[in-house]
Amino acid sequence: MQRRKFLKKGSLLTLATALGTEIVFGKNIREGYQLLGLQDPDPFKLFQKDPQMVVLNDKPWNMEAQAHLLDDRVTPNRFMFIRNNGKIPANIDAANWKITFDGESLETKKTYSLKELKSKFKQYTYQLTLECGGNGRSEFNPPAKGNQWTVGAVSCATWTGVRLKDVLEDAGYKKDAVYIGYHAADTHLSGDPSKEPISRGVPMAKALQDETLLAFKMNGGDIPLAHGYPLRLIAGGWPASASGKWLNGISIRNKIHDGTKMTGSAYRVPCEAVAPGEKVKDEDMCIIESMPVKSLITYPKSGAVLKNKNSLTIRGHAWAGELQVKTMEYSIDFGSSWQTCRLEVPKNRLAWQHFSATISFPKKGYYEVWARATDSNNLKQPMILPGWNPKGYLNNACHRIAVKVS
Ligand SMILES: Nc1nc2c(c(=O)[nH]1)N[C@H]1C(S)=C(S)[C@@H](COP(=O)(O)O)O[C@H]1N2
Ligand SMILES: [Mo]
């Protein structure tokens, strides 16, 4: 009979950190045991989120921000949306974390410890926009199944790690490589260990970009548990589903990666526009790559009331996937005329850009402020819901807020 193993020191330390105190009889805990204190039903406490965050689902945990919560230039953990497809891994042993590279386009499998990644490769820090492909889904009609995100499934934190390209080169991939696919430690909701909750990836060209990271830090500290501790793939500007959390494997593929949620209709949109409600065959659906141009007014909160003044400085962020945002405009007359906002350059490629504008309202009354970004290819955000698609992806319609001048 095989004796059950006790928890490793590294896992114990991680659990103690998550609990905020020492586990006094920790040496008696067996591997796989789930501590009651970490099954906190209060997700705000558990994930250290602001109470104004909105829970969309608890199995798995999905939580979004509201526009006004995203006002920071660099998104702090407490305002960062959570999108999980499975169960967050239990008992993470960061001290012994490993990542294995395999796949058809690799001569021999290669494993690196997290320690090795940190010591062997140069480290880089970038601020990177991560937006869920389904952000804005709640507006689709006919409705699309899935988390009913409004506007808050986007973040732009600072990520530190090593370049995936440096590690890929070290691992020595073959010339026929076309795609990478990630593997992770989270578990399928069914409990079936042979099923991966999600295993997506990106073409080699994206994998080899300078900003594509194997990240082990977020905003200067450990990556929070819900966001992929202790190692995460980050591919900014693409649907955030390409950025695998709790990363423990990369397959270098000689074909488009065919992991969970890469095939069928997942994270795909009709290659050609379709009428709302139309059925689309899987083979007519194309993989989402760069995310479309979009913006968010983060100050003031919609419903603001100006008392004894008629001037207001609005601010927010705009982003455009792989592209840059070229101009940012606002309208207070329901889109009949547009004024230019001040727009900053991004901190680095694939980071969102801050905008602001000081608006003078002509008289007392009700207004809406509409914001519209234009990308470097001159594509503008649509005023209303863009191309309907069966799974409700890529809603980049203009953000609007209500303002009363009294
Ligand atoms: N291992 C793993 N990685 C994952 C997911 C997941 O469920 N498991 N969800 C993906 C999806 S769909 C999104 S939108 C982002 C969400 O990242 P966040 O929770 O850090 O905001 O993580 C992606 N990476
Ligand atoms: Mo997502």
TrEMBL record:
It comes from Croceitalea marina. InterPro entries: Ig_E-set, MoCF_OxRdtse_dimer, Mopterin_OxRdtase_euk, OxRdtase_Mopterin-bd_dom, OxRdtase_Mopterin-bd_sf. Pfam families: Mo-co_dimer, Oxidored_molyb. It comes from the Bacteria. This is Sulfite oxidase. SUPFAM superfamilies: E set domains, Oxidoreductase molybdopterin-binding domain. Residues 86-259 form the Oxidoreductase molybdopterin-binding domain. Keywords: Metal-binding, Molybdenum, Oxidoreductase. Its cofactor is Mo-molybdopterin. Residues 287-405 form the Moybdenum cofactor oxidoreductase dimerisation domain.
